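Whiteboard transcription, Tuesday session. T.W. wrote the structure tokens on the left side:
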């Protein structure tokens, strides 16, 4: 961190801790941060799904503190004042609240458990821009009018080769979803939650925006419409209320991110952005878009550490410089800008650089006359970086299908390297339009060259552990055996297949610390790997 951003960060922290003398406007929303998570003896982490444990083992680092819930007696102190609690955040050790009087803010600041307060950011209400008429283009039957937006990223050839996002979990955060459109006939939804209404009944709280963004990834109706990663599984979160004039809230977005994390999400596709507050005087200044300062961008940094790739739209505030909104400023966010069908710049697309001088967007794809499923049936064309981001998220899902152990920053680096402006990136196009097929060709060539079977994490300290085979044979594995360094059999069983060349062992016997060898067998082949066990 350079000195200037560090000073700016200190000023932001001081402002949070000391508070602002401004009066609270009616029903303004605030983050309330706590000093700790209560007595240490009572701090119990929430359970993570096996898919989350696998993702962290593959490409992340677990932070047990982030898995410990907010201490409820601290929350009760605030709710007993008559203050409405909006969302809880384990990662930030905070709650968001709705305040209706300046006295509420003063009383909360006086609580001994409270470390500081900060306004909750809001998103703009002008997503997406106006609908534009489509350009005349020839299309092939299989993709209908969605072919061009797929071809731009070289996705149809990948779909033909069997790359469709199978085994990858994508979280889509938006305004709600109506799932009755025919393009969702084979949609696999693992879970959904409405963070606006705080209920699990997601379907029916739909809007064109969320339905369209989901369709760009998940749609499957050959002959009419195809999404980028129709074989993936989905976690759907409604984080914005599109039925009223209330803008989206970043606390809903953060809550959705933590919710998706424990359900094993691999990629977040988000076409929402945050910068403004109820009181314009509190809005994030441009120099706060440095990848470290805004709450939502800090959340993406934490997600990256846990192996989650965040793909986010740049916004439609262009064409001026530094018009991006958070979390597109994130150092670990795959930020997506837009182009027209003739591959010129989408005029309204937000531009970089970030406050600390980094190039944004990372990549671009079609953002005008994008062919979209409407809310319940039929199709329409519209424009905005909102519709570029889901296509890139879908492409990233195909990349993770090919190589599930890629950390988020590695995925971003691959998209840069495959961009058509690799040698001349700028703050309008980033690294350009990525060739996703070229990325996967490179990864599969590397996989074919790998000759060793390996165990991860290694050293093994807790189960589950995962075994990645040197060739694609996992679906026909018959058994595994585990030996200690003396050659004694200590465990055996049937593999739990998790991917095309990977299996999981969820439980181990009571083993001593030391070196172990695992042997996995098919009818014709044997695979062997070793690992260190440190209980």
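and on the right, the sequence the group agreed on:
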């Amino acid at each position: 961190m350079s000195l200037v951003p560090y000073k700016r960060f200190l000023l932001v922290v001081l402002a949070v801790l000391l508070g602002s003398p401004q009066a609270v406007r009616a029903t303004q929303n605030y983050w309330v941060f706590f000093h700790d998570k209560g007595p240490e003896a009572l701090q119990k982490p929430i359970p993570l799904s096996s898919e989350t444990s696998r993702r962290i083992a593959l490409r992340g680092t677990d932070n047990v503190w982030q898995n410990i819930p907010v201490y409820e007696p601290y929350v009760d102190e605030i709710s007993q004042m008559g203050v409405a609690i909006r969302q809880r955040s384990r990662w930030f050790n905070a709650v968001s609240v709705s305040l209706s009087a300046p006295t509420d803010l003063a009383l909360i600041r006086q609580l001994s458990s409270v470390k500081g307060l900060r306004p909750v950011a809001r998103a703009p209400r002008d997503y997406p821009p106006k609908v534009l008429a489509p350009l005349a283009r020839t299309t092939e039957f299989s993709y209908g009018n969605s072919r061009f937006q797929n071809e731009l990223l070289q996705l149809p050839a990948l779909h033909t080769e069997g790359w469709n996002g199978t085994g990858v979990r994508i979280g889509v955060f938006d305004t709600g979803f109506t799932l009755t459109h025919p393009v969702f006939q084979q949609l696999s939804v693992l879970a959904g939650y409405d963070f606006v209404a705080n209920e699990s009944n997601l379907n029916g709280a739909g809007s064109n925006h969320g339905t369209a963004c989901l369709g760009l990834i998940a749609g499957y109706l050959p002959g009419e419409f195809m999404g980028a990663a129709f074989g993936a599984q989905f976690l759907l979160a409604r984080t914005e209320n599109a039925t009223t004039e209330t803008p989206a809230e970043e606390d809903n977005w953060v809550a959705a991110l933590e919710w998706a994390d424990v359900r094993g999400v691999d990629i977040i596709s988000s076409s929402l952005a945050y910068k403004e507050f109820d009181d314009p005087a509190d809005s994030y200044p441009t120099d706060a878009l440095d990848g470290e300062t805004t709450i939502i961008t800090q959340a993406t940094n934490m997600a990256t550490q846990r192996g989650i790739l965040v793909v986010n739209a740049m916004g439609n505030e262009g064409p001026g410089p530094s018009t991006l909104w958070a979390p597109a400023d994130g150092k670990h966010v795959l930020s997506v800008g837009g182009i027209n069908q003739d591959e010129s710049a989408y005029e309204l697309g937000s531009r970089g650089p970030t406050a600390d001088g980094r190039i944004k967007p990372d990549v671009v794809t079609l953002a005008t006359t994008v062919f979209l499923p409407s809310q319940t049936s039929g199709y329409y064309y519209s424009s905005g970086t909102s519709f570029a981001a889901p296509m890139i998220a879908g492409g990233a899902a195909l990349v993770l299908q090919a190589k599930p152990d890629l950390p988020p920053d590695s995925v971003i680096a691959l998209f840069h390297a495959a961009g058509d402006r690799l040698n001349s990136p700028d703050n309008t196009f980033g690294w350009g339009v990525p060739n996703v097929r070229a990325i996967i060709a490179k990864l599969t060539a590397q996989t074919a060259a790998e000759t060793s079977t390996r165990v991860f994490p290694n050293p093994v300290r807790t189960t589950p552990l995962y075994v990645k085979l040197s060739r694609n044979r996992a679906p026909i594995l018959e058994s595994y055996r585990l030996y200690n360094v003396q050659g004694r059999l200590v465990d055996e069983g049937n593999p739990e297949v998790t991917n095309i060349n990977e299996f999981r062992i969820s439980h181990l016997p009571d083993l001593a610390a030391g070196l172990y060898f695992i042997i996995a067998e098919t009818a014709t082949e044997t695979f062997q790997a070793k690992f260190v066990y440190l209980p």
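Someone added at the bottom: Residues 1-25 have pLDDT under 50 and may be disordered.
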